[in-house]
Specification:
There is one protein chain. The protein contains six helices and 18 strands. It is an alpha+beta fold. Helix 4 links the parallel strand 9 and strand 10. Helix 2 packs across helix 5 and helix 4 crosses helix 5. The protein is globular and about 70 Å long.
């Protein structure tokens, strides 16, 4: 067990006092059997006129904030304490019928999974699908479902280069494949579309990652919000896959929101009234610390790039 303390601070700067429209916040971690929110505070400056909480269509906890005071600076400072139970792969139980690929989701599951199984992005020559099919067993041999997904996750970690990018938006999966580099959100989306091309249901996750040693650590994505994906496996449910770091299971990952597509998971969005030149930019800082944790890491598979000929 581990108790994580998270501080997520975002500050917007303006050249003169401006008025603010409604802002939408996705900061609050999801409560579940493997993580539980113990405490949370949200300091906003200038003080808001109203804060309204709601659950979105995915069950994520959203804060809607309204303002009536103009200001040159707008600050959101969230402090969260989360009780976290690591789930290390491959300790998840898959239904016998789904242990080998391909398999079929049951009629009820397929109905409820809906668009999480469908591919969302153009890929006219099916290049992403071709890349994913490299991991299937040849000939008449069955492919182990768990091994297939873990190997695909590790391959992204080993064969693609992480590059921090501050611009909004996410690369298309085809762009990520061509560039062989991207951010955590690019890699999460790429893995989603790769497994969807094989018929798996997948969804996007945004949240926080605990970096054991922030200085010199090879864990990527710390210091800001992080992104990964989940794949639905009958009997096991939604399983976490972080292709940026080659993590399978929820080790060091704190879920805030799950969505069908990255465009639905912006941590903070809103408007202001003024000229475009009034905006002087923003700063974002995320810090995750712990007072105690369960040790243990999941090793990255070796020589995957050689095995798939890349």
């Amino acid at each position: 067990m581990a108790v994580f303390s998270v501080r997520h601070k975002t500050v917007f700067y303006y050249a003169r006092p401006v008025s603010f429209g409604e802002h939408r916040l996705l900061f609050r971690p999801r409560d579940s059997y493997d993580q539980r929110l113990l405490n949370s505070t949200l300091d906003i400056d200038p003080a808001p006129a109203d804060i309204r909480w709601m659950h979105d269509v995915f069950g994520n906890c959203v804060a809607l904030v309204r303002f009536d005071t103009p200001a040159k600076r707008l600050s959101f400072d969230a402090r969260l304490t989360v009780d976290h139970a690591p789930q290390a792969a491959p300790d998840f139980q898959i239904d016998p019928a789904a242990l080998t690929y391909p398999f079929d989701y049951g009629a009820d599951d397929r109905l409820d999974l809906g668009r999480t199984i469908e591919r969302h992005y153009p890929d006219p020559q099916d290049e992403v699908g071709k890349w994913a099919r490299r991991f299937l067993a040849h000939g008449d041999r069955h492919t182990d479902t768990g091994k297939l997904l873990m190997t695909l996750c590790y391959a992204i970690r080993e064969c693609f280069s992480y590059a921090r990018r501050h611009e909004r938006g996410t690369q298309t999966p085809y762009e990520t494949l061509l560039l062989r580099k991207g951010t955590c959100r690019d890699f999460a989306l790429f893995m989603m579309e790769a497994v969807r091309s094989l018929g798996f249901a997948a969804r996007f996750v945004t949240g926080y990652i605990y970096v054991p040693d922030r200085d010199g650590s090879d864990t990527l994505g710390g210091g800001a919000t992080h992104a990964w994906c989940q794949v639905f496996l009958p009997g096991a449910g939604w399983i976490e896959f972080d292709p940026t770091n080659g993590i399978v299971g929820n080790r060091d990952l704190i879920r805030v929101a799950v969505v069908r597509d990255p465009t639905q998971a912006t941590p903070l969005s809103g408007t202001f009234s003024g000229a475009a030149a009034d905006s002087l930019g923003m700063t974002v800082q995320v810090n995750v610390i712990t007072e105690g944790r369960l040790e243990g890491t999941l090793p990255i598979e070796e020589a995957i790039c050689k095995k798939i000929g890349t």
